[in-house]
Structure formats: structure tokens, C-alpha cells
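Good morning C.,

I know you're traveling, so I'll keep this short. The sequence:
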Amino acid sequence: MPEQEPWLTALFNEHLGGVAKSVLDAVGYKLEDPTHPWATWMVMELLVVAFIVVLFAVLRPRLSVDKPGGLQHVFESFYSFFQVSTEEAGIHHGERFVPYFGAVFIFILFMNLLGIIPTFESPTMSASVTLGLAICTFLFYNAAGVKANGPAYLKQFLGPVLFLAPLMIIIEIISHLARPLSLTIRLYANMMAGDQVTGAFEKVVPLLVPVVFMGLHVFVAFLQAYIFMLLSIVYVSGAVSHEH
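The C-alpha cells, ready to paste straight into the viewer:
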């Protein structure tokens, strides 16, 4: 067993290791340690997904116009926040994109917050997770741009003056490819740094001080989820803008 493997990861490797190994072998992925095919970030991400599915399965039957519960009020506030953020970015008919922005925010937030619970880790401490999220946003805003503008969407790569097009194409391609890289590193680095700081102080001062840093961890969790969502909104706004 790898050193300091969380108990849930060890449980997955013990009882579901064969399943994971079969799937990874089928796609040609070579494992460094075939006896432990489940990485911690995989297990933690699945845990967050399961929690979100259960949460909304419980919430949906209880939705009410006349007597909304506390949980409904919370998510209605979230929805209003997503909608206002989208409108402020200048996206016309932005309500069609709100589900994606909301899903990104909630998913990242819950993954960030998971690290506060003892014996668990935030999946966003893995670059594989943040890269996957960044690629989703990259594909989403480009697809939205093509859908909104058709073939004219590609004109943005040519620049404002035709004779500069060869240079502008290179610059624009580099700029667009840098976006998922920036999203990946920003979320990964901030969550990793926050966890390392909290863990260090827990070892040095195991009583009062870690509570302060846990509060800071919660703040960073919300902030990083918001920044990722906000940048996604900005990218979509630029892609679907007819003026752009």
C-alpha cells in the first residue's frame, strides 16, 4: 500500500481494484503499481459526484413555490448569483449558459471543501482534475462561439487587418491554448498551497491555530471556485459576442 494512502482509497483498491485495472488496461493505460489502480483524486472526485447526486435527489422532490425550505433558498441564491454574473459579463440570453457555470462552480466548490474533512483530500489538489475541468471549459466556450457565430467565429483569429493575419493567427492560437493552462495551474496551485499550509500548522500547533487556517481554506475554496467560473464566463462572453 502506498504511504499515507487515505482509508477510502485503500478500500477502493482492495475491493474494486480489479475493476479499475480492467478498465485502464482496456484503454491501454499502463499502471505504475497494478495492485493500486485507484488514485486518491479519482476516489475523492467520485465521492463528490455521489454526494452531489444524492443532494439534488433529496432536494428536487422538496422544491416548493409556497413553502421553500432552507436548502432551496440557498441554491436559489446561488442561481441568482450565477445569473447576475452572466448578465454583467454582457452575454445576450445568458440564461442558456447558467447551468454550465453553476455546475462548474458547485462541483469545484465541493471538491475544494472536501479537503477540510479529516482523512479526505481535495481532488483539485491534483493537476489531472484541474486540467480536465479546464479542457471542459475550453471546449465549451469554443463550441458556444461556433454555435453563436457560425464559420464567422474563426475570423477572430485573423485580427482586424488582413495583412497581419499570418501573425495574428499564431498569436490567437497561443492565447487560446494558454487559457486551459492558466485555469489548470491557478486552481491546482492555490488548492495545493492552501492544503500544505493548513497541514503544516496542524502539526506545529494542533489546537487553536488550525481552526483559523481551516476558515482560510473555506474562503480560498469559495474564491477559487468563483474565479474559475468567472473566467469561464469571460471566455464564453468573448466567444459568443457578435461584435468580437
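Safe travels,
E.
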